């Protein structure tokens, strides 16, 4: 029990601290202001509120159908979050033109998104220190919580890539980059909803695949070249 608790406590803490230290590294390495982190947090929070309001207008019977629920949740997450990210660049961070700056905005989204699984893992870990349950029960709780914490960490690359993709709308003057980000985000969330809630490690595998793809986007998508006069 104690061993499970310690490992889970470290995972939950590292989940939140990984975002914080990445933001600190960007600030020191590229002199990126922390204000851009705030922009990400604000736009993500607004997106959550808008999604919550929109879902209230959907018939609960429709949400009870898994395929429709997955589609609606995916579309809401994709369109709302990426649109608010776009508005964040347009109205709150107009001077954002570089990849490190976009990453800082993306970290604001990531920090907000990973806070819940991180704190949840820490809470379960603390309970394990005093829980008198069986070892088998502890192992099951640990496995599920560890998978959720790891899934949360794997969301970070996706948010960074989406932030960089949306910025291309302004750097290249092409709005279709927004729809690329919406498509990727929507696909990620649709699959996450379709996966059986009891299959926590299957969700982690899906998040890992999306994280690898996101890293590919970050590595391969370069800023547009300036046209020579």
Search tags:
229 residues, mainly alpha, 83% helix, 0% strand, globular
Query: Runs with pLDDT <50, length 5+?
Result: none
Beta-strand residue fraction: under 5%
Number of strands: 0
Run of helices and strands: HHHHHHHH
Q: How many helical stretches?
A: 8
Derived structural class: mainly alpha
Helix content: over 70%
| Biggest sheet details | none
* N- and C-termini, Cα separation: 67 Å
What would the average pLDDT be, to the nearest integer? 88
Shape: globular
Total separate domains: 1
* Radius of gyration (Å): 19 Å
Characterise the protein shown here.
The protein is mainly α. It has one domain. The chain is built from eight helices and no strands. The longest helix is centred in the last third of the chain and has 38 residues, at 135-172.
Short description:
The longest helix is centred in the last third of the chain and has 38 residues.
Topology:
Elements: H1 2-30, H2 35-56, H3 60-63, H4 66-92, H5 99-128, H6 135-172, H7 176-194, H8 200-220
Helix pairs in contact: 1-5, 1-6, 2-4, 2-5, 4-6, 4-7, 5-6, 6-7, 6-8
């Amino acid at each position: 029990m104690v061993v499970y608790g310690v490992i889970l406590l470290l995972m939950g803490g590292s989940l939140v601290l990984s975002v914080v230290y990445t933001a600190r590294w960007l600030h020191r390495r590229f002199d990126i202001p922390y204000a851009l982190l705030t922009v990400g947090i604000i736009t993500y929070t607004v997106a959550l509120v808008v999604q919550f309001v929109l879902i209230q207008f959907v018939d609960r019977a429709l949400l009870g159908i898994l395929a429709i629920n997955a589609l609606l949740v995916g579309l809401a997450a994709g369109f709302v979050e990426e649109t608010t990210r776009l508005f964040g660049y347009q109205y709150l961070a107009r001077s954002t033109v570089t990849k490190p700056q976009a990453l800082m905005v993306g970290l604001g989204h990531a920090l907000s998104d990973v806070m819940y699984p991180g704190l949840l893992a820490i809470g379960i870990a603390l309970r394990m220190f005093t829980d008198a349950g069986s070892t088998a029960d502890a192992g099951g709780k640990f496995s599920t919580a560890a998978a959720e914490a790891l899934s949360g960490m794997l969301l970070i690359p996706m948010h960074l890539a989406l932030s960089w993709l949306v910025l291309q709308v302004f750097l290249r003057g092409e709005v279709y980059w927004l729809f690329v980000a919406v498509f990727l985000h929507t696909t990620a969330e649709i699959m996450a909803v379709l996966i059986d809630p009891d299959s926590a490690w299957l969700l982690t595998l899906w998040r890992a695949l999306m994280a690898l793809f996101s890293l590919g986007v970050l590595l391969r998508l370069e800023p547009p070249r300036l046209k020579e006069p």
